[in-house]
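Q: Could you fold this chain for me?
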Amino acid sequence: MSVLLNTSPTRKAKIRRVKVCGPKKVSKSRRATYRVRILVKGNTPATGVRLKVRGKGIRSNKRVGKIGAGKTRKVKVAFRPKRLGKIRVKFQVASSNADGKTLKRWIRIKRW
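A: Sure. Below is the predicted structure, expressed as structure tokens.
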């Protein structure tokens, strides 16, 4: 008796790396712009990719779309902080067919 096995590789996308570049100090109610680089590994493109930025007094969403396998996408995201002090900001990358990745950064919100 012979057994036929499915030997085709599984098709999967993985969000491998998220890198954030931007200011460490920001004035309150002033626009802060950050550059986020998203790297996708695997053998299929990541679809429905979106970037969320969350923190105390900070909220921003950005649709990135489709990122090819083995490709890097650079995204600019801007927000205006509403509270003073040292705040931990989460940059969350999620996709409809790949796992997500979260990166946390501390930023200081100044009065002016």
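A (continued): DSSP finds no helices and eight strands in the chain.
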